[in-house]
Write a structure and sequence with these properties.
Helix 2 links the parallel strand 5 and strand 6. The two termini are 39 Å apart. With 405 residues, the protein is α/β, with parallel strands linked by helices. 41% of the residues lie in helices and 19% in strands. The protein has two domains: 173 residues, 3-Layer(aba) Sandwich (Rossmann fold), CATH 3.40.50.1970; 182 residues, Dehydroquinate synthase-like, alpha domain (Up-down Bundle), CATH 1.20.1090.
């Protein structure tokens, strides 16, 4: 995994290294006289780039503002100048025209398909709408799919790309905080089944991820909080210093402070890129990215897809995971209290719904981490360090699920 600041010059060349502005200051830079930071204006196109290191299938994650208007970020990743944008009824009125104009101005033919919005539509019927559009418009193997939306759109578009003609390229353009920090990175694609979330899908990596932070300005507060849950997860499983930073900066994040939100997205993607680079197909360490998800997916399935947002269910699930870790003697009551406090500060529900123990166990039994019929959980050895275990006494799990919340 690599991390660097990059500036894209108008001629398509990259200037690497320190944060500089090649637009207002390019003449100064070209003459070798250095960089006058005070001359930067809002036209500055500073962008941060990470790389998911997967050998020949490595790809960049670009994080910055104004990326939807920059065709040069997409063109190098197209096998032909023909794409299909997949989006939904919420995002389409906001950003579909902008992205379409950007591409068409660059000579790219754009096809579009607009799906109904929501987790409840992450199913075969919606997936077939993508296939119908691809087939009716004679999309070819070199036609690139572009996912413009949140996690549901990204997952379904990626799965459609993995299946159509046995694999076509796709690009992630995530427009929600949750998708920018988590679901757009790593190549997990799929749809839901009535018995379990994300149970049907494929590992299929995008060509590039464009995280335009401007799209967060239209994100409802509830969706913003859902994304913060995944950011908190990275601190809990990997980086205690980042966790402390989140505690100190949660108000700024909820207010969409530009510097704070960019740092949170960058650090989250940095951690995920490192983990995915080590374990692409979740045969080992990548499973730690599922902290709170075993409980959370059970909540989503049990309540009905879309009743609880994914991030809300993960937030409550992380509290249950923290409490389970405490009962196993790994973390303290104070650590659980810190976890609860941060979840609450992010505007998330800290208490899981009472589905009944048997219902929780039924849905958790369908979890993708189940191995040889045994449920496995991601828990905390300490704040900032996760562990995967199947050795949880039944009475401990039942006590956690029945405890007052």
């Amino acid at each position: 995994m690599q991390s660097e600041s990059r500036i894209l010059l108008p001629d398509g060349a990259w200037l690497l290294g320190k944060s500089v502005c090649p637009l207002d200051c390019m003449a100064v830079i070209m003459r070798g006289f250095g960089y006058n930071q005070n001359s930067c204006t809002s036209r500055c196109k500073l962008m941060q780039t990470l790389t998911v290191d997967l050998g020949e299938r490595s790809y960049p994650i670009h994080i910055g503002t104004g990326l939807l208007g920059r065709a040069e970020m997409i063109l190098p990743h197209l096998l032909q100048k023909r794409v299909m944008i997949v989006t939904n009824t919420t995002v389409a009125p906001l950003y579909l025209a902008q992205l379409t104009t950007t591409l068409e101005t660059a000579g790219v033919a754009v096809m579009k398909v607009v799906l109904p919005d929501g987790e409840a539509y992450k199913n075969w019927e919606s997936l077939n709408l993508i296939f119908d559009a691809l087939l009716s418009q004679r999309a070819e193997r070199k036609t690139t799919l572009i996912a413009l939306g949140g996690g549901v759109i990204g997952d379904m578009t990626g799965f459609a790309a993995a299946c159509y003609q046995r694999g076509v390229p796709f690009i992630q353009v995530p427009t929600t905080l949750l998708s920018q920090v988590d679901s757009s990175v790593g190549g997990k694609t799929g749809i839901n089944h009535p018995l379990g979330k994300n149970m049907i899908g494929a590992f299929y990596q995008p060509q590039v991820v464009l995280a335009d932070t401007d799209t967060l300005n239209t994100l409802p507060a509830r969706e913003l909080s859902a994304g913060l849950a995944e950011i908190i997860k990275y601190g809990l499983i990997w980086d205690a210093e980042f966790l402390a930073w989140l505690e100190a900066n949660m108000d700024k994040l909820r207010a969409l402070d530009s510097a704070a939100i960019t740092h949170a997205i960058h650090r989250s993607c940095e951690i995920k890129a490192q983990v995915v680079g080590e374990d692409e197909r979740e045969g080992g360490i990548r499973a730690i990215l599922n902290l709170g998800h075993t409980f959370g997916h059970a909540i989503e399935t049990g309540m009905g897809y879309g009743v609880w947002l994914h991030g809300e269910a993960v937030g409550a699930g992380m509290v249950l995971a923290a409490e389970t870790s405490r009962r196993l003697g790994w973390i303290s009551e104070a650590d659980v209290a810190r976890t609860r406090s941060l979840i609450r500060a992010a505007g998330l529900p800290e208490g899981a719904p009472d589905l009944g123990v048997d219902t929780y166990l039924e849905y958790m039994g369908h979890d993708k981490k189940v191995e040889s019929g045994k449920m496995r959980f991601v828990l905390l050895k300490k704040l900032g360090e996760a562990v995967i275990t199947g050795d949880i006494p039944g009475e401990v799990l039942r006590d956690v699920l029945t405890a007052p919340r």
